[in-house]
Specification:
Layout (H helix, E strand, L loop, with lengths): L3 E3 L1 H8 L4 E4 L4 E3 H18 L6 E5 L4 H13 L2 E4 L6 H11 L3 E4 L12 E4 H6 L10 E3 L3 E6 L9 E5 H15 L6 E4 L6 H13 L2 E4 L5 H9 L5 E4 L1 H11 L10 E4 L6 H9 L4 E7 L4 E6 L13 E2 L4 E6 L2 E2 L6 E6 L11 H7 E2 L2 E10 L5 E6 L4 E3 L2 E3 L1 H9 L4 E11 L3 E10 L7 H11 L8 E4 L29
Parallel strand pairs: 2-12, 4-5, 4-6, 5-9, 6-7, 11-12, 11-13, 13-14, 14-15, 27-28
Antiparallel strand pairs: 1-8, 2-3, 9-10, 15-16, 16-17, 18-19, 18-20, 20-22, 21-22, 22-23, 24-25, 26-27
Helix pairs in contact: 1-2, 2-3, 6-7, 8-9
Bound molecules: adenosine-5'-triphosphate (ATP) and magnesium ion.
The site of magnesium ion has 2 residues, from loops.
Length: 492
């Protein structure tokens, strides 16, 4: 039998109509007010012809209007395709075509980036449209696709991840069973809604009846003010955001009211975790991906030093294990991270090949390598596709990058394997120096010698002005090789 539960925002507006759903710095809306504006937008969308089952792209920056559009599409029963606003026109056109979306709702200033044969509805156009009656989905069916989100494309071409209502529901429940919920909680959404880190905040807000504060674009100073002023109690960040906030914070400290800094999206540098501990910032390190509808494992701050660098244990409804050569690995033995749970996707849009490769026997193969210690804590090492095998030893680029990044002159670092006659492959590093610093290749190699086994020390180190990153600001290691100068016969 198909599980259905009442439409989330409608139910929330019925249960706790007066509670504040959303703040944005200019104003606020209760859940009832949000529900009312969502009904209006849904009727305006119906006027443009949007119907149940349509795939409708949303190409917007964080705003209350964006939240309304996503809910409104769900009221109609449409599938929401969330698009990264940093995509180039070409990348966007590819994703829109690949998805089969029929409409795209866009912020006015983003609309001219959309190419191809698709009906574009700008926000100002939508807001001016008359309303047309449309049947609202009173229930959400667990099996139905609520959203589609393309992966960041760090390891290859992005894939459209199908996220069901069930995935979002259980993701929100798994998170709250771990983090708990306070009556005065307000979650700062400074990460984009087009990523699962942001969208999951919106889902939690309506499911829990919790306020959220929407930031259009991340601003470290403003985020610190909101935390220090006691306006927000939880925030989701990636490490680059947290670094900026700490730099802005200076000697100030966060108040007790701030109870969770949820840090995810990629590896967390150890020096950053240590600074947070010293400053009393309650960091919850988390591991997750688009395919797991946000967190699948999270580490509570009480373990942040004893289990330094760990991403914690799986959330209550989920399971996680490490597989090596088809067997469950022993504690500390690295292998592929394999996960299972009601928050895990049922597959990729139009990609039965990729789906069959990733989901086997009910388990999702993440493509990430990690290990579990004797207490069941997960440590993420790296992407399987980026592993370097040097003289039979496994070398994880992320470990070398972390060492390079801990050097005071290094702003960014990327490591790949390059062919070597003796060892098969050897690590090769690309470093962007901080402005005003003049470290040499030799000095960096010496620094690595003090922190890494000999076979992990980069044989070549190149200084570059910029590292290749995708629209999610993730390092594209597979493009690093192109930065090696053609006439190269030694380090620069
Ligand atoms: P693609 O799948 O297209 O290559 P992507 O994997 O970068 O893109 P996302 O779903 O945005 O797309 O990112 C999830 C990935 O981020 C994880 O699979 C993992 O590699 C990395 N990641 C997330 N959390 C952590 C963490 N705590 N430590 C290390 N890596 C992490
Ligand atoms: Mg991925």
């Amino acid at each position: 039998m198909q599980t259905s539960i009442p439409n989330w925002l409608m139910q929330r507006a019925f249960l706790t109509p007066e509670r504040i759903a959303v703040y944005d710095g200019q104003g606020k809306k209760t859940f009832m007010e949000l529900h009312e504006s969502v009904m209006k937008r849904a009727r305006q969308l119906a006027n443009t012809g949007v119907r149940k089952g349509d795939i409708v792209a949303v190409f917007m920056k964080n705003s209350v209007a964006m939240i309304e559009c996503i809910h409104a599409l769900h009221y109609i029963g449409a599938i929401v395709l969330l698009q990264n606003t940093r995509l180039t026109s070409h990348e966007l056109a590819w994703q829109l075509k690949d998805s089969g979306a029929v409409y795209v709702i866009a912020d006015d200033e983003l609309a001219d980036r959309i190419e191809g044969n698709i009906r574009v509805i700008t926000m100002s156009e939508l807001s001016a449209l008359p309303e047309e009656n449309v049947e609202f989905q009173q229930y959400y069916h667990f099996d139905d696709i609520a959203t589609i989100m393309y992966t960041s494309g760090t390891t290859g071409k992005p894939k459209g991840v199908l996220q069901t209502y069930e995935n979002h529901w259980w993701s929100a429940i798994g998170s709250v069973l771990n983090l708990g919920l306070n009556e005065n909680d307000c979650w700062l959404a400074a990460v984009p809604f087009f990523h699962i880190s942001g969208l999951s905040i919106m889902m939690r807000s309506v499911i829990y009846g919790m306020s959220m504060y929407v930031m259009r674009a991340f601003d470290a100073k403003k985020a610190n003010e909101l935390i220090i002023g006691g306006k927000v109690t939880i925030m989701s960040v990636v490490s680059a955001m947290l670094q900026k906030m700490i730099a802005d914070l200076g000697e100030r400290r966060y108040p007790e009211t701030f109870r969770c800094m949820l840090l995810g999206g990629g590896p967390a540098p150890k020096p950053l975790l240590e600074v947070c501990k010293a400053k009393g910032i309650p960091v919850y390190q988390t591991y997750g991906m688009t395919e797991t509808a946000s967190q699948i494992a999270t580490l509570a701050p009480e373990y942040s030093l004893t289990k330094l660098g760990s991403a914690g244990k799986p959330l209550f409804p989920s399971q996680l294990r490490i597989e090596k050569d088809g067997q469950v690995a022993r504690p500390y033995e690295p292998g592929e991270i394999v996960v299972k749970g009601p928050n895990v996707t049922k597959g990729y849009l139009h990609r039965p090949d990729a789906t069959a490769k990733a989901i086997r026997g009910g388990w999702f193969y993440t493509g990430d390598i990690g290990y579990i210690d004797e207490d069941g804590f997960l440590y993420v090492l790296d992407r399987r596709s980026d592993l370097i095998i040097s003289g039979g030893e496994n070398v994880y680029p992320a470990e070398i990058e972390a060492v390079l990044l801990s050097h005071e002159s290094v702003e960014e670092a990327g490591v790949i394997g390059i062919d070597d006659e003796t060892w098969g492959q050897v690590p090769c590093a690309f470093v962007k120096r901080k402005r005003g610093y003049s470290v040499t290749v030799e000095q960096l190699k010496q620094f690595c010698q003090a922190h890494l086994a000999k076979y992990k020390i980069p044989k070549q180190i190149y200084f570059v002005d910029e590292l290749p990153r995708n629209a999610s600001q993730k390092l594209l290691r597979h493009q690093l090789k192109q930065l090696i100068p053609n006439n190269e016969n030694g380090a620069l």
